[in-house]
Design goal:
127 residues; 0% helix; seven-stranded mixed β-sheet
Length: 127
């Protein structure tokens, strides 16, 4: 049974940092493409970052333009967990962040959606 469980959200002031975690069960994190999405109040869900599947390599990464240089997606195969390190956070980053996964190797078309989803973790950037 596939399960994705997000954690690490919270309240942080502008300019601060958070690291989100997505703990995975039911498959290994290097065999699926995995992505982070977010949904702000009153807005549609948008893709934030994707990491492709890999077997022994780092895997390619993709980012929403507005988070490039600030967010980093990574994978820990030993912990079967995917992370989203978020630095220099802005109020517009406030949203519920979701982890998603699909049984494909590459991130092509990842923004169209994923097969499996977590329940999300709330990130609030405010002073």
């Amino acid at each position: 049974q596939v399960q994705l469980v997000e954690s690490g959200g919270g309240l942080v002031p502008p300019g601060g940092s958070l690291r989100l975690s997505c703990a995975v069960s039911g498959f290994t994190v290097d065999s699926y493409r995995i992505a982070w999405f977010r949904q702000a109040p009153g807005k549609e869900r948008e893709g934030v970052s994707c990491i492709s599947a890999s077997t022994g390599s780092v895997g390619s990464t993709h980012y929403l333009e507005s988070v490039k240089g600030r967010f980093t997606i990574s994978r820990d195969n030993a912990k079967n967990t995917v992370y989203l390190q978020m630095n220099t956070l802005k109020p517009e980053d406030t949203a519920v962040y979701y982890c998603g996964a699909s049984p494909y190797l590459l991130c092509s078309g990842w923004r169209d959606g994923m097969n499996y989803w977590g329940k999300g973790t709330l990130v609030t950037v405010s002073s």
